[in-house]
Amino acid sequence: MSPHRFRGPAFQTTHIDAVKKQTKFPDGHLDRAHVVLECNGQASEDLVPKAIAESWKRCLALGLQPQRLVAVEAHALRQEQERVALLRRLVLAEMENLYQQIAGTNYMIAFAGADGMLLDTICDPTFRETARASAIRPGTMWTEAQCGTNALGTAGFIGQALTVHGGEHFFGSHSGLTCTAVPLYGADGQLAGVLDASSDCRSRQQHTQALVSMAAAQIENGMFREAHHADVIVAFHSRGEYLHTLSAGLLVVTQDGVILSLNAHARFLLQGLPAAPGRRFEEIYRTRLTDLLLGARKGERQRLEDRIGSVFAAKVEALLPAQPLAMPGLFRSTHGPTDFVAEDSAVQSVLRR
Question: Does 289 lie in the same domain as 273?
Fold first, then answer.
């Protein structure tokens, strides 16, 4: 695969349950690593974290020079923003929330598309000069192949959350930054973009990656639900109190039992089972789908047992509007109610669904 593009879904992991800690090295080691990098053209895993060393090696293989920043201006920014309008709506809301959550000042929240183009930023006033000096602005390309090791580009390439601190950046012009980035995956499992939080090294926050990962999970769940808004979505978790949290599994199934899609947490919770699009509900669960949907009609939380014997709390989030052949009367009629009168406009809207 060309290093000029971000990688795909093979590296996708759950953001909340699998936030990985990077090995921290003393700053003295980092200084020595950069001397070796610039003088000998080598990247040592003894002096920097493995993910950083591997990124440096890719940059060296591409012929990038540590002393020079390759700044590539993007074109057609507005066209790209319009193309991913739905995703941006979800992302911008989480960017605002994330900006409020990260303590202190001197931060920037950024969003890049799957091709590495920076599409949106929210910047603290105290960080604007740093952002200008580092060319962090919408319309620039931040792939690893163009900007060297950086959290946004490298996280997109390896498909995992990553923090790049100070001199771990390939180019010295970015050595004053600490950046944390998390890849975003669409409902189809393909990379949709990358969410990033950057600050100067003095503002480094240990909890930033967890917050960015939570925001990424919220965006991914939003994309998942938008993509399947007309389908049956089953939310489940091994602990009932987590059923309405970001760690809940989401599974989409047709009314006749064919699985259409699962989010990353669903795959995590169903490890060891043939949980994949195209398989049937009864291959995964002992609980009958008909029983699950009947209970959902009553508004009840369900007990869901898989074929291994694990038990989950479950809730059906949406029901298909079509009439099922095998279960007449379970879903609402598509012709609407004929004998119920309501003056309330909100109630009328619900009844028309």
Answer: yes
Q: Residue 37 corresponds to which tokens in the numbers above? A: 């990098």
Q: Do 14 and 77 fall within a single domain?
A: yes
Tell whether 21 and 78 lie within a shared domain.
Answer: yes
Q: What is the CA radius of gyration of the chain?
A: 23
Beta bridge partners of residue 258, listed in sequence order? 280
Residue reference for tokens 């303590």: 103
Mark which of 197, 224, 251 sits at the end of a domain.
224
- Please, what are the averages of pLDDT over each run of 10 residues along the chain (353 residues)? 45 48 58 78 82 93 71 73 95 93 79 94 85 81 91 96 92 88 94 94 73 95 93 95 94 95 95 95 96 85 94 84 41 41 46 45
For residue 253 the two structure tokens come to: 């199934």
First to last CA, the chain: 46
Please calculate the CA angle 184-186-190 and round it to the nearest 5 degrees.
85
What type of residue sits at position 270?
L
d(C-alpha 111, C-alpha 311), whole Å = 38
159 and 284 assigned to the same domain: no
DSSP string, 257-289: SBEEEE-HHHHHHTTTS--STTSBHHHHBSS-H
The structure's pTM equals 0.78
> By residue range, what is the domain housing residue 13?
9-224
Instruction: Work out the burial of residue 265: count CB atoms within 10 Å of its CB; fewer than 13 is exposed, 13-18 middle, 19 or more buried.
Output: buried
- Are residue 215 and residue 236 in the same domain, yes or no? no
